UniProtKB/TrEMBL annotation:
Its main location: secreted. This is Apolipoprotein C-II. One of its GO terms (cellular component) is high-density lipoprotein particle. Keywords: Chylomicron, HDL, LDL, Lipid degradation, Lipid metabolism, Lipid transport, Lipoprotein, Secreted, Signal, Transport, VLDL. One of its GO terms (molecular function) is phospholipase activator activity. It holds the Pfam family Apo-CII.
Length: 98
């Protein structure tokens, strides 16, 4: 029991003495012009990278390759139809002259 009391008193004294050794807070140091400039440039760069990454993700989500393939197929189908019509018209114009 005496050992427990001695240990408790020593821990209490240690805690009180440790509290008195606290260092006062220091005011934050002012940043230099170069540091401010570097931080500003870095924030603009990070913002530009984030924006570009967002655009790339939105383009990937649109599945543009598949849409381009479908557009190419539809366009070539329509153009071949119009080419066939123009070919027939030209053929009938030229064949009726003979």
């Amino acid at each position: 029991m005496k050992k427990l009391l001695v240990i408790t008193v020593l821990v209490a004294l240690l805690a009180l003495s440790a509290e008195s050794f606290r260092l006062p807070r220091q005011a934050p140091e002012e940043q230099g012009t170069l540091t401010k400039l570097t931080d500003t440039v870095r924030s603009y760069y990070d913002s530009a990278v984030d924006t570009a990454s967002g655009y790339l993700e939105s383009i990937k989500n649109m599945q543009l390759k598949e849409k381009a393939k479908i557009l190419y197929t539809d366009t070539t189908t329509a153009m071949s139809t119009y080419w066939d019509i123009a070919h027939d018209q030209l053929y009938h114009i030229l064949s009726s002259q003979h």
